[in-house]
Amino acid sequence: MRSWIWTLILFAAAVALALVLRDHGGNVLIVAQPWRIELSLSLAVVLALVAFLALHWLLRALNWLGTSPGRLRAWRGRRAQKRDVELLERGWINVLEGRYVQAEKDLSNLLSRTRSADRKVLAGLSAARALHLLGETARRDQVLRLAQEGAGQDSRLRQAVDTVTAEMYLDQNRAEEALALLEPMQDASSRFLHGTRLLLRAHRQLGHADRVYELTRLLLRRSAIDETQARQFIRESTAQRLAEVEESGWSAVWGNLSADERLDPDVALAGAQARSRLGHPAESARILEAALDRHLDDRLLRLYAQCDAAQAGQRIGHAELWLRSNPDHPGLLAALGQLCLAAQLWGQGEHYLERSLALRADTHIHALLGNLHDALGHPDQALRNWRLACQAADAEIPTVNRLLPAADTRGDPHFNETDDATPVEPAPPAPHAASGVYVQDETDTDALPVSAPAPEAPTVTPTASGSASSEDEYFDTAPIPGVDMSQTSDGGARK
User: Fold this and answer.
1) What's 361's domain CATH number?
2) Domain span including residue 37
3) Does 243 fall in a domain?
4) Are the beta carbons of 202 and 182 closer than 8 angstroms?
5) Quick check: 405 and 482 in contact, CB under 8 A?
6) For the chain, what is the domain count?
7) Of 396, 412, 436, which closes a domain?
8) pLDDT tens column, 81-95
9) Of the residues 60, 242, 374, 438, which has the fewest C-beta atoms closer than 10 A?
10) C-beta separation of 30 from 38 below 8 A
11) Is residue 7 part of a domain?
């Protein structure tokens, strides 16, 4: 449509010019010795316009010829840029589709051919990602070095390289190296949210509970982390901080928690254990009671039941209030039974434990019943419950229906050591017969067995000094473990 409008305008201009020139029939005289040129006015105007147009196009042609090298370079640059973009797009599509080998090939080709620093860094990081997913860490580190060199002194590109490198290090649990790259990028405003998330991940791997808590709070305020995941991180880090807290730092840790977070079972358990460890059992009970009012957790109930007799009565009163609304809670019944044992209310404790045992077979309940019967002087029932506790814990306890024979300790050099640690010579080897004794001949170093004397007059062979050796006296009088002396030649008369 625009071309038709311009065509009409040109026709109108031509008609107007023709009308004007028809009314002006003058001549134009051009004198250039020795020539004298006379033209009509209309022809002179037309020739002037043609000359102007010809000169204009001539100048443009000369300019085009003069700028041809620049235009050729620009064309080559556009062609190279188009090729680089195609390789980069194809490589990233292959990465996203999981074809890492082809992606690495295209991106490495782009890395070696491109002259753009931005595309060199992007290609290097993309190829490093593909190699990382292929598990080729050596080649990945080499490509990352090339990307780092391509970034030069550009802070933006260097941050990109450091961020991608740190994320790959975190995938390999190399948290300390990742932390060294991420810490310089963490500013006070924390606008770099992805880096903050990676920093949180690094501190979690290193177990830095304080930093995990601070960074999680920061990301939660900026809505840069899932709320459920943030609550989990806060719960884990708070429990770890409470496990290591001292009296001077208790207020800072516990006071920074919201009311809802203090009622979390994990946080309440860690807080109660901390207060009990620091010597404040009453505060520990209050923390547990607040959390148990919200939800009866077995771990909290078991810790709540661990107290001395002075606090047992008050805790029984709280537990009985919970029992009114939860009469069939096995953990609560077991806790009440344990509290009754602490208060020495044996009958009521047995009643609660038996009710809990009827609802759930538990190692803890069997062990408490065993302790109860042991305190009451019922060893058979106590042993039975302890065995059931072991069975409930999937422990294989062999049944022993007979007494084991006494161990042979004659070869143990430490069995007869005196109180003053006087060394005792090892016993000689066992005799060949149950009634045999050893006699040491002064002319022979070997001990030979001889027949035993008559039962009525037991004698021993004297040595050259006229006294019996300690070994002969021991083996002549001591019974031999595991041997029925009634079946020996002396009829068991030896005492």
Assistant:
1) 1.25.40.10
2) 25-62
3) no
4) yes
5) yes
6) 2
7) 396
8) 899 899 999 999 999
9) 60
10) yes
11) no
Contact 336, 352 (CB under 8 A): yes
Question: Is 413 inside a domain boundary?
Answer: no
Q: What is the pLDDT of residues 176-196, one digit of tens each?
A: 999 999 988 876 456 788 889
Alpha-carbon distances of 451 from 431, 444, 457, 475, 492, rounded to whole Å: 11, 18, 14, 13, 15
Comparing CA positions, the residue from 35, 38, 19 lying closest to residue 27 is 38
Residue 373 belongs to some domain of the structure: yes
Number of Cβ within a 10 Å radius of residue 218: 16
Instruction: Give the residue carrying structure tokens 């290591």.
Output: 244
Per-residue confidence (pLDDT) for residue 408, from 0 to 100: 65
Task: Single out the residue in 62, 89, 113 at which a domain terminates.
Answer: 62
**Residue 47 near residue 39, CB atoms below 8 Å:** yes
